[in-house]
Amino acid sequence: MLDPMNRLEGNVALITGGSRGIGAAVAERLAEEGADVVLTYEHGAERAGAVVERIEARGRRALAVRADSAVPAEVTAAVDEAAARFGRLDILVNNAGVFLVGPLEELGPAEIDRTLAVNVRAPFAASRAAVRHMERGGRIISIGSNMAGRAVFPGMALYAMSKTALVGMTKGLARELGPRGVTVNLVHPGPTDTDANPADGPNAETIAGLTAVGRYARAAEIAATVAHLASADGAYITGAAIHVDGGFTA
């Protein structure tokens, strides 16, 4: 019987934006369950290197690749490098994102273009590149946001729009890739304790109060759902948008 903590043995995973926060937690959880891991980063080579070191300390192979998710050629190159270096690609986690918020009048073409490039076009481009390397059993998992289901604060329209677009992408790709044995799913985290959104930061008490459980998530809790979807245990889940948000959207 397969050790449940080695569900991903022999798999290769690519996590975009994997140097910190939810991305780093996902990278380490997939490695803990047996996967070799490639992660991309745009800034923070030291943080990315630290994640690689922690994964290698578990006896898994790991690689950090610098890539700007706003540049399609860099996204595609990172996917191809992952497959070339480790000989295969089984799991893609579209995690990289930008959070540009503000009043409608202050969000101009530059902010719109950047948000859509990173939060929408990059997951599509990475998925398009990844399926060339995936065999049956492949997994594409994108990280959305609770804001796609409940935008309770003003100034969130652009960000919420970009994350909502992933719902359509996920459903469309699930139908297209299902016959090829590749599942496609979306995880919507709620407020999550990271360096970018600390559980003790400004307005954190108000934000936590909007959840049913009254607290922020740990990044590891989001990673646990991603790991389930990435494993054989998640083989019959596809086209789904799963809220791991403590009841924020309930």
UniProtKB/TrEMBL annotation:
One Pfam family here: adh_short_C2
Stretches assigned to the Ketoreductase domain: 11-210
Assigned keywords, A-Z: Oxidoreductase
Molecular-function GO term, any one: oxidoreductase activity
Upper taxonomic lineage: Bacteria, Bacillati, Actinomycetota, Actinomycetes, Kitasatosporales
Family designation: Belongs to the short-chain dehydrogenases/reductases (SDR) family.
Domain of life where this protein originates: Bacteria
UniProt source species: Streptomyces mangrovisoli
Protein name: Oxidoreductase
